[in-house]
Amino acid sequence: MEEYLATQDQPSPPGQTMLANKYGVPRSTLTARIQGCPSKLDSASKQQKILPEEEELIVAYLQETVRRGFPDT
């Protein structure tokens, strides 16, 4: 996306299809990013109810309780 935006002021900028093929992504994905649509990963992270640090603590706690023989319910 950065290369597409940086080359738009050139006399003959590369097309979306060419850039998508160059970087191995679908053209529809590149078009969506250029139009401002967020990726699925970005969208999902905004809907997360707890912070990543809190998630890490919960996972570490569950791993420790399983290691000690308590079921992970």
What does this protein structure show overall?
This protein has 73 residues and is mostly helical. It has one domain. It has five helices and no strands. Helix 2 crosses helix 3. The longest helix has 16 residues. The radius of gyration is 21 Å and the shape is rod-shaped. The termini are far apart. The model has no long low-confidence stretch (mean pLDDT 86).
Into which percentage range does the β-strand content fall? under 5%
Number of strands: 0
Spatial gap, N to C terminus = 44 Å
Instruction: Describe the global form.
Output: rod-shaped
Short description:
The chain contains five helices and no strands.
Relevant terms:
73 residues; mainly alpha; 60% helix
Q: What is the strand and helix layout of this fold?
A:
Elements: H1 2-6, H2 16-23, H3 27-34, H4 40-46, H5 52-67
Helix pairs in contact: 2-3
